[in-house]
What we know:
The structure holds three protein chains of three kinds. Chain A is mainly alpha-helical.
Amino acid sequence: xxxxxxxxxxxxxxxxxxxxxxxxxxxxxxxxxxxxxxxxxxxxxxxxxxxxxxxxxxxxxxxxxxxxxxxxxxxxxxxxxxxxxxxxxxxxxxxxxxxxxxxxxxxxxxxxxxxxxxxxxxxxxxxxxxxxxxxxxxxxxxxxxxxxxxxxxxxxxxxxxxxxxxxx
Amino acid sequence: xxxxxxxxxxxxxxxxxxxxxxxxxxxxxxxxxxxxxxxxxxxxxxxxxxxxxxxxxxxxxxxxxxxxxxxxxxxxxxxxxxxxxxxxxxxxxxxxxxxxxxxxxxx
Amino acid sequence: xxxxxxxxxxxxxxxxxxxxxxxxxxxxxxxxxxxxxxxxxxxxxxxxxxxxxxxxxxxxxxxxxxxxxxxxxxxxxxxxxxxxxxxxxxxxxxxxxxxxxxxxxxxxxxxxxxxxxxxxxxxxxxxxxxxxxxxxxxxxxxxxxxxxxxxxxxxxxxxxxxxxxxxxxxxxxxxxxxxxxxxxxxxxxxxxxxxxxxxxxxxxxxxxxxxxxxxxxxxxxxxxxxxxxxxxxxxxxxxxxxxxxxxxxxxxxxxxxxxxxxxxxxxxxxxxxxxxxxxxxxxxxxxxxxxxxxxxxxxxxxxxxxxxxxxxxxxxxxxxxxxxxxxxxxxxxxxxxxxxxxxxxxxxxxxxxxxxxxxxxxxxxxxxxxxxxxxxxxxxxxxxxxxxxxxxxxxxxx
Lengths: 168, 107, 398
């Protein structure tokens, strides 16, 4: 019961934040609603027993990546977008039914592959602590981990090179 | 929905939420004009995928899904660093962030 | 049901004590700085200015709630809310003491609000989200000083978060857990027959270096002198909260003090052995009571027999009696297991807070480029070095 309430609240919050994010004109408003969506997803991760991922979501995604976005927005002093063009009636007439059909197909797919009686309860899975994740990273997934650290290194170098390049 | 509320959340609800968030991200990616906002829509899509990874991880009672979303986070961090640097460079060159105005390959 | 009632009671108690302590922390800060600078400090409201926090609170609450016309209203109001809530949340994962039995009820409970598997990560996450408060406040004020202050603050907090996380990671390698209560319990082991194995005493004193790094980062994270560039008053008026007044200003103020307190609690848990005393010998549990009784008796002596200043005639004896009472409470058998751990924990936290104030009264401010260079040029390599050295030691010894 509590599970359901929490899921409804934070899932709804995530969807609302997502909608606000793509409808707001100002990038800072979009960035903040994305942070809200990430925060509510972190709560859902906790409900799913993924403690470490929830903390990482808050620290890495909300605390570092999105701050970087906010920083760049402030640095470039990005203002609100100009009014969008009015969508053509063909786009509306084709797009909305297409989206509905896509969701119907998706619902059909989920319903056919995932049994409806498989319920998610808080505490049903406790293998997501920092210890378990760490064990998996450094035993089973050691090679991907090392590879991804090289990727991060390259990204750092790339970012420095790109941002320092003098333009005339 | 049965008359009495289930004692827990159906897994399908998590997957549906993930799908909705992904669709929102994709829609934003298509309709927004600001480079930074477009980039943020990609982040929303990545987050949606993470949610389904973690939900499947619960379903299968295995930690692997958490690892995937961990890797997705790391890739997102790397991507954000490089992407924002590119956006900075674009802004330096053209002093605009609107996708429509960054349309010539030649300076 | 018991659990919910008990948790609510504990939360209410901690919230009340924490908020009052925050108000009085400001009084302590003003008094200590005043005495360092050979001044008197606040002494008009109540004896020794003790009612000053109360009057300040009333003043800030009843002040006109001013919203400048040029601000971005929604974000302007959101920023202090984010700041103060993130600052107050992280106290909930700090363990204050061991498992105790509430007198006369037989109910056993832990001192502290909650114990999480990922306890240490929670304050880090909260401080990460807290950056938004500062950045948003600076941006939404539509004021160049505020914007500069906000940008400085967020850049500084992001830069120092990194060495801070690394200096936390070093002791975590020794403790092998993220659960704060387990971390403290591991430091309760006794070495050489009398020394508790506090974090800073173990592994050849290497964690002591991590502790110093952590303290430096803590100063920078909370935007305090010598790293208070975001609100450098001679350059930026008041930095990111230039446009804030009344209760909204007070929430930023409260957030700063709450962050200070939480980070001192974190340092105590990770490095200073939590609620354990430094050394173990028979009768160590009587020390807290004796300290209180002794200082109470001293106040009584100076307030009655050896009266130096006439205005202390009533205050010193009154406080002497209060201190004696607190001291005697430490000897009551059923209160002792509660009060003695709390005494050690709080005395360590208060010492660290005193250090904050002491540094504020002593050191000048960095220049901004020095601050950034210090973070990336010194703190970062040194904390990586400490992490490697600790990892090596742990690998060799375990």
